[in-house]
Amino acid sequence: MIASAVQPITTRPAGPITPPAEVMAPAAYWLRDEEHTWAPTPYRLEGDRLTWGPLWRFRGFAVAPRVYLHELRRLDLSDGAQLLDFCNQFGALGIQPDADTSMHLDEIRNAAALLRTLTSIYHLHVTGQFSTESIQEWEWDAEWVAPSVDAITGHEFFTNEMNRLLDAATPMVGFGNHQQRPNTLLDVLAIQLFNDIAAGVTYKTCASETCRELFVNQINRKVTRNSRNNGTRYCSPRCARAQGQRNYRLRTNDHRSGAELGK
């Protein structure tokens, strides 16, 4: 087994980057005749393409904290309906600023799989599990992203891809008609991951038998000063309730079995 020593990951800047308040993505608009104002319409699916039609403009989407770790990692990339709901909530993922009127779902899948893979590499590194074997055993979304990553090349892949994604966060200036491209959802999710790396965040694994996803703070729970290390075992109240019900049923069945044996 080839395993890497756990070395600190250096970042520049050393602290967090303030992410944009919203991301910009193209969205179709329709004209309210009675009000003479334009209103956005949801994305829709046409076969394997996410579409927004010919009458579109950039629309702002608010992004919740740690979408890269929560909502993105829980997506079924083979389910077009889930991808559609995700894009309607947070904006189209992986879209280019000069996009036409639609994008193939594989573009969304590739962008999501890349961020999920980078998150997994970071997790394996900080927990001292970064080895060829652990990489092969981890869920790598290989159907959409298939880099030849092992314990030797994994760190190079991680730094190259993270730096490429963070390029949009670099300050820029220009003259005349120069325009800095709008912040995309992919840009902001990469910044979210960077900020956790800069803060040295370590992930927990949800104790639910049917989840086992990574998390930092419990979803839908107020973040307090000590919430990161407060012993929370489940990523969400829903997982905690579901596992509690499973444990209760198991104890009940064990009690019944013991009672029957004692007869």
Plain-language structure description:
By secondary structure, this protein is of the alpha+beta class. The protein folds into 2 domains: 1-168 and 181-202, no CATH class; 210-263, no CATH class. The chain has 6 helices and 8 strands; from the N terminus they run βββββαβααααββα. Strands 2-1-5 form a 3-stranded antiparallel beta sheet. A 3-stranded antiparallel beta sheet has the order 3-4-6. The chain has a two-stranded antiparallel sheet with strand order 7-8. It starts with 21 loop residues before the first strand and ends with a helix. Residues 223-229 have low confidence and may be disordered.
Q: What's the gist of this structure?
A:
The chain has 263 residues and is α+β, with helices and mostly antiparallel strands.
Give a topology summary:
Elements: E1 22-32, E2 37-40, E3 44-46, E4 49-51, E5 56-62, H1 80-90, E6 102-104, H2 105-126, H3 132-137, H4 154-165, H5 185-198, E7 204-205, E8 214-215, H6 237-261
Antiparallel strand pairs: 1-2, 1-5, 3-4, 4-6, 7-8
Helix pairs in contact: 2-4, 2-5
The level of helicity is: 25-40%
Number of helices: 6
Distance between the termini: 53 Å
Cα shape: globular
Integer tally of domains? 2
| Counted beta strands | 8
Give the strand order, joined by hyphens, for the main sheet: 2-1-5
- Percent strand: 5-15%
Please describe the structure with a list of short key phrases separated by commas or semicolons.
263 residues, alpha+beta, 3-stranded antiparallel β-sheet, 6 helices, 8 strands
